[in-house]
Amino acid sequence: xxxxxVTAAAESFTCNAYLALGDRDVLVDAxxxxxxxxxxxxxxxxxxxxxxxHQHGDHVEALDEVVETSDPAVYAYADHALRTDAxxxxxxxxxxxxxxxxxxxxxxxDDHLAFxxxxxxxxxxxxxxxxxxxxxxxxxxxxxxxxxxxxxxxSIERLRDRMPAGVEHxxxxxxxxxxxxxxxxxxxxxxxxxxREPKYPDE
Length: 203
Prior knowledge:
Layout: E1 2-5, E2 18-21, E3 26-28, H1 36-43, E4 49-51, H2 57-60, H3 63-70, E5 73-76, E6 85-86, E7 92-95, E8 98-104, E9 113-116, E10 120-124, E11 127-128, E12 138-139, H4 149-162, E13 169-172, E14 178-179, H5 182-194
Parallel strand pairs: 3-4, 4-5, 5-6, 10-13
Antiparallel strand pairs: 1-2, 2-3, 7-8, 8-9, 9-10, 11-12, 13-14
Helix pairs in contact: 4-5
């Protein structure tokens, strides 16, 4: 499975939107970059689905553009005007060449899902490798209305417990990708979240 970050050239704030190419070409999050549909079209003319980790604006702002251009199925936990398929905790979804399990991971967002296969984690914002606050294991912010550090900690624990031992590729909503011992990155993020200290000095 080849994974392309189709928002890598963005000049304004967006999430990482990942195009997984394989038996089933799937976009994980749509991002908030104008022209993202054109970047997707550079890699495939057969986008089958968009799978949303959650519906914060930086993850879904470009969804209308992508759907209008490619008419893919849209998978999401929470209702959305463009959703065609509902996903719940434990559901299976085909992304690229692999079968992924949806893991419900609220705390940063009430509708957050992470997607894990035998080898790969699309973690959205629940856990990231590096994001300016921490390197090698950080976690989604929980200082805004409707967010909860305690719920996020439970979600990271759930993700850790459901993640196969062989996961070695991590594609997070922000920061860089990571290839190696993903479980250790997740456990590091969990340890930091459990300290319950502000993620950013101004929180």
